[in-house]
Specification:
425 residues, mainly alpha, 15 helices
């Protein structure tokens, strides 16, 4: 009786490497939370913490920008509800499991775990664009990128928003690659719903609803847009209804738009370090109008300075340095950040000739252009780093492929020359 030959045992090295990357990412995030210790909350963090506590204790959702440590006592729509609801949910679970203790470490732990989801999405997106090598390089960069490690200790929107937003970018990429197959209205609707959830955390992503369908064939473009629009509106519907019932006004996102816009009209001093604050004594309902007047006056009196500020100036403030503060890793963080930004920009250039790269490139370009209208905080472009890392990983693998091809051609040329010499001898 013939015995069946056993297949030789083979190690799936890509899977092993990915597992090691995830293990490294988890270790770095939890280790930093351990060594960072308790954190003193700053302005925005205080506001979100107070909002979540007020929501749990009184059922009132309101953010007090003027005095973040004091509850509003009445509802408002100054910020979107996504992050306060997330905080309230974690606080509630923590209160049931460990009553009488601070819930902030639990929030930081949950955000660290969610950050692993970003690493996974970066791997999936990179693999779609450049195969396993690009996916593994992108995942490794996301695992060790210092701001991705540091951000989890902050009680701010960025960790949660980055996960939802990167998931949206990935789903759109899947739809763009499968446009030749049967339409998938459920997936399109889920894509729009995920964008809606992202907008409930950070509203600036809403314009991508109109940008995403542009790379699809004309016959599919309208169906994709309508399905994603339905999902988007479904996510926003409870918030819009709540605002209409409470304030008798149509408020799709938040009422704080004028604040970051007005702060962005203070050339080279948006943090009020060298002069008086531009928002001092300006009522919230007039901040947007005052910002427009400042821009008009600036373009009339100092056009070069104001044009430079809204282009090169804000771009440098947004992208030259990473968000975050890790004293013992700051130089490494700066060097890695600039390397990734340079590689990502190179990938955006390659996107002109490589259609699969156009969607992540369009995301980075569109969101950066939107951010130029507001205060240039590098914290606000932090959620774009996953897409930029994927573009940088693609650039690295593409450059390596070209280098190996060039080496092979040179090697083949010299081998051919040697053979011809041997024949002559």
């Amino acid at each position: 009786m013939l015995r069946r030959r056993r297949k030789p045992f083979r190690i799936a090295w890509p899977g092993v490497l990915l597992l090691l990357i995830f293990a490294l990412a988890l270790f770095l995030r939890l280790h930093f939370l351990t060594v960072a210790g308790p954190r003193t909350l700053t302005h925005d963090e205080l506001g979100y913490d107070t909002t979540a506590v007020q929501l749990l204790e009184k059922g009132v959702l309101g953010y007090n920008y003027g005095n973040p440590a004091v509850p509003t006592g009445a509802p408002n729509a100054f910020v979107t509800p996504g992050y306060p609801l997330f905080l309230a949910a974690v606080y509630k679970v923590h209160g049931l499991l460990a009553p009488g203790t601070s819930p902030l470490p639990s929030v930081q732990f949950v955000q660290a775990i969610l950050s692993l989801g970003v690493v996974g999405l970066v791997f999936l997106l990179g693999s779609r664009l450049g195969g396993y090598p690009a996916g593994l390089i992108a995942a490794c960069c996301a695992a060790i990128y210092p701001p991705f490690i540091w951000a989890n200790c902050r009680i701010l929107t960025e960790p949660l928003f980055t996960l939802f937003f990167t998931g949206y970018v990935y789903l759109v990429q899947v739809s763009r690659e499968r446009h030749g197959q049967e339409p998938a209205p459920v997936r399109y609707g889920a894509t729009g719903f995920l964008l809606g959830l992202s907008a409930l955390i950070r509203p600036t992503v809403a314009p991508l609803l109109a940008v995403a369908p542009l790379g699809l064939p004309r016959g599919l473009r309208s169906r994709f847009f309508l399905a994603t629009l339905c999902g988007f509106l479904l996510a926003l519907l409870p918030w819009v209804v709540r605002n209409y019932v409470d304030f008798h006004a149509f408020i799709p996102f938040a009422t704080q738009t004028g604040n970051p816009f007005l702060r962005g009209t203070d050339p080279y001093d948006p943090y009020d370090r060298y002069g008086p604050s531009v928002i001092k004594d300006v009522p919230p309902e007039q901040q947007f109008r005052v910002g427009l007047e400042r821009i008009r006056h600036g373009l009339e009196t100092e056009p070069r300075r104001w044009v430079a500020w809204f282009t090169v100036g804000k771009l440098s403030w947004l992208w030259l340095k990473p968000w975050g503060g890790m004293p013992y890793m700051q130089e490494i963080a700066n060097a890695l950040h600039r390397l990734l930004v340079a590689g990502g920009v190179l990938g955006m250039v390659f996107a002109l000739r490589h259609p699969p790269l156009r969607w992540p490139a369009a995301v980075v370009a569109t969101m950066t252009a939107i951010q130029l209208a507001f205060i240039p905080l590098n914290r606000y472009v932090f959620p774009l780093m996953p897409a930029l890392i994927v573009l940088a990983a693609w650039s690295a693998t593409h450059a390596a492929t070209l280098a190996f091809r060039g080496f092979g051609r040179v090697h083949g040329y010299f081998c051919g020359c040697r053979k011809r010499v041997d024949r002559r001898e």
